[in-house]
Amino acid sequence: MLSRLKYEVTFPSTGRTLSGDFSFQKGFGAITGPNEAGKSVILEMIRFSLFGTAALRGQTTDYKNMKVELEFVVRGETYRTKRTISTAKIFRGDTEIANGVKGTNAKVVEILGFGLQVFDTACVANQGDIEKLGAMKPTERKQMVDSVIGLSVIDDLAKWCGEEARSISSAIDGIEETLVKPEEPAKPAGYQPSADMEPELSRLRGLRDELNQIKGRISSPFPAAPTKPVEPTQEPAEKLEELVEEARAYESAQKELARLPGPPPVDPDTISVDDWEIRERLKRDVPTMTAEQIAKADADMELLKRFERFDHLEKQWKDLTDVGTHTCPACEHQWPIEAGRLEKVEAEMRKLDCELQDEERPSKPDMVNIDVARRQLQAFEKVRAEWERVKDTPKPEYTRQQLAQFKVAKDAQARRAELEAIKPSVGSSKELNQLWRERLAYEQEMSSYEKRHAEWIEAKARRVEDEERHAYLLNVPENLAELEAAYQAAKIYEDRLDAYERALGIYETKKAEVDRRREEEQGYRKGKEALTILRKLVKQHLIPSLNKVASHYITKMTGGQRNLIEVDEEFDIQVDGQPINTLSGSGKAVANLSLRLGLGQVLTNNQFSVFLGDEIDASMDADRADNTAKTLEGLAERVSQILLVTHKYPQADYYIELERVSSISTYAAF
User: Fold this and answer.
1) pLDDT band at residue 669 under the 50/70/90 scheme
2) Per-residue DSSP letters for 6-57?
3) What pLDDT is recorded for position 147?
4) Are 337 and 324 contacting, i.e. CB atoms less than 8 angstroms apart?
5) Cβ atoms of 40 and 127 closer than 8 Å
6) Torsion-angle region of 503 (φ positive above 0: left; ψ -120 to 50: alpha; else: beta)
């Protein structure tokens, strides 16, 4: 049952916006209003709320800013959908149970138990398609009804069962063509398991390998004993190394004695050149001018600036005079144009002339050198005391470098005594080093000789053992060949026996598979037979029920003028024995409406007891439209909710009256 619809949608082609908020009641409701008021939009929004964009009459681009919310009740549970063109949600109470267009569409089908096709066939008669059911060919009606009630699914299942049975039967034939029971191999005479022979076989193979190794060793001649090296000296290498170091120390001391300087001419510790070096360093910083000379230069510079100012004023006086004069028109008296400025210049010139009257113009001093001298004088004041102390220091006889050499010579005299105390060795370092190297080589050769001699003794003992072991193992190859032949025969038998057991296992598995598949094949064949029986039972129930209910409705809607609708198994439709396509326009309308109401009663009344009609009485005269309205009113006893879009005013339980307002339509329900 529908409870409430709230929507708003704009149509881009016209810019028109429709919106509404309606609460629906149980029973018969009529939606009325002028043309283009949006009556059919209400039913379209209900269908869109349930089934999404597939229920829209136009393309999705024909709708802009569409927001729709529908509340409905199924089996006592309240549900609410919220949709736009691209989004969707559904709630059970306040709990969201699906989000997204696909999820919401699937959840609605799950709740109702059928989709848009069944809904439009059994619960809706849209504007302009009231005669859609009757206009179909019988085969199309049969296919549509079979799809609605699920017979097409039963047919598909029956077909699938038959195909599965045939596929399994074909697979069984393929398995049986290759199903051959394997033969068990014959056991060889004197058979012994190969695993039991492997320890002895491994032992004999090890003895054979040992014999081959011994043959390889004794096949080559035995080497002669190694030669003992000759000793070059009795002294050990350690002692010779000490003598080499003593000789090198003596020779190094003699060379160092030859390089040592003689005694210095003076004691360097009694002579100092520090004050002389300070004097020479400070001498470079002595100022080139005295303070009096610098003060004289500064005074000359100031005097020169006043002379230059006087020169500048003279030139300025001449420039101002050259500007010209004013002439009085009355008395022809003349005065300078720049008289005011000339008075100031002349006053300053008179003052400077008095100041410079007894002064001689000095030459321009070199102020750059004077500034350098001034900075030198300022810096020298910091070291003047040190300069006064060292300025009369005489030049020393020796330089600091010479004194450093004298210091080295003085220190070397103590080293001379140490070097002269070193005693000579028994020979030169070169001779002793050569003898030490020869002794080291001898000791290494002797160590190698002792090792090789011990190894030669051990090899001689092993050679004797090999010859004795060789004589003992001479019969091993013959015994090994006999055992390997028996082992090979046992392995061949065991491999064949293993292959036989695997083949037997495969044979038994395939045989069991054939038995299982035969049982599965019979199951599919029985399933096909059961589905065929089920289809017949459904058709036997559906068609009589549909005929009965549809005949009841057409009798009521025609006021008894029409009484019987008959639909056969091939879905040919006759009304009172007359084919439906031969009826008048209103006759077709009431016949089609009766069939739709009948299908709704038979198929969906217990799931979603709603019927939506859009101007289904448009082609009927007043009497037949009145009878149809009364039939719908009476149908309210069986269908919980009926909504009829109409231009007429039938006797309804409540009305939704629409009013058209320019570009935005608003609705009222009462």
Assistant:
1) very low
2) EEEEEETTTTEEEEEEEE--SEEEEEE-STTSSHHHHHHHHHHHHHGGGG-S
3) 61
4) yes
5) yes
6) alpha
